[in-house]
Amino acid sequence: MKHEDSPHTHHNHNDCIDTALDTAEILCAQQGQRLTKVRRRALELIWESHRPLGAYQLLAKLAEEGFNSAPPTVYRALDFLLGAGLIHKVESMNAYLGCAHADKAHKGYFLICDECHNVMEFDYQDIHAALIEKATHQGFELRAETIELTGLCAKCKAKPAGASA
Amino acid sequence: MKHEDSPHTHHNHNDCIDTALDTAEILCAQQGQRLTKVRRRALELIWESHRPLGAYQLLAKLAEEGFNSAPPTVYRALDFLLGAGLIHKVESMNAYLGCAHADKAHKGYFLICDECHNVMEFDYQDIHAALIEKATHQGFELRAETIELTGLCAKCKAKPAGASA
DNA sequence: TATAATTTTGTTATGATATAACAACTAAAA
DNA sequence: TTTTAGTTGTTATATCATAACAAAATTATA
Ligand SMILES: [Zn+2]
Ligand SMILES: [Zn+2]
Ligand SMILES: [Zn+2]
Ligand SMILES: [Zn+2]
């Protein structure tokens, strides 16, 4: 699994979105889960943002489109999408990000730029294996991993401070 | 650096607290920082809890003792202590934990038990080195690391579910 | 198809975490 | 001693998340 493309990288993001939604439909169907209108649209809206989206930002967008605008609406959709592995939560940002590899079981490891707030998901089996070993060695049964690295992305390092992408 | 003792391990926790406060005094003095009454007491209260303490839990304790009871009081103290490296924030819990090794520069890596909510800090230079290398390889300048592993601690694995320590 | 069971959504209220802004005070420096 | 920088007090508000229960829609069963 390799998904380390920068959000800056030139690409047709509509393709990303389409692929993600197709994958979501398939995965939900396989698992007997219902990708309802609001869930589907929530996922799409998250994907339309390259950067992680906050729950209330998402709620505002949904409200604009006539969906119910109370918080439980968005948190239920987020819970569903998280449970289905279609999105990740970035704990240190309280924000949500579409996962491009929902069909492959994996942990969400992130590189988060302090300057432009773009987030890159990366995969690192060596890290995962080492963490498992470390935890097991201490008699700890590992269930979830939050790996969030913050700093300055390559683009922002090359730019004068403040000029975020 | 080795600080992998379980909070369950029998020990005189008053010694931990005393040591932590002594270290804090020394570090602050060295850096020309002022460990004021409220900051010192906040650190002490955090240390008195083996488990990470929420900001408002801490605020309540401070208020009981006659300190100002508005949120900025506690968040200012927390900011100070975080900045001085005397405590860590556990992002996935929104809670704060005393660091037993404030005198040694290090990243806070945690093992968090879903059952008893105890948190063990662990150190793993290999992981740190690997993450640095990974980030650098992508042109990313790494500044901070959030490594939070959740699951079931050894004690809780050995116990019937629900009987948290 | 009718009915029941299950899941999803609507709605209101509240809880939990964190910061902005500005005034008052205090300690340190000049 | 005046200035300066740092700290604390105070009020208000922003931001993130869940509880509880009613209504509607979907799915399963009779
Ligand atoms: Zn992913
Ligand atoms: Zn950047
Ligand atoms: Zn530490
Ligand atoms: Zn435990």
TrEMBL record, chains A, B:
Domain of life here? Bacteria
Looking at the keywords, is Nucleotidyltransferase present? no
The protein's organism comes out as Marinomonas rhizomae
Q: Which InterPro entries match?
A: FUR (IPR002481), Fur_C (IPR043135), WH-like_DNA-bd_sf (IPR036388), WH_DNA-bd_sf (IPR036390)
Primary localization class, coarse: cytoplasm
Q: A Gene Ontology CC term for this entry?
A: cytosol
Q: What is this protein called?
A: Ferric uptake regulation protein
Q: Which GO terms describe its biological process?
A: negative regulation of DNA-templated transcription; regulation of secondary metabolite biosynthetic process
What gene is it encoded by?
fur
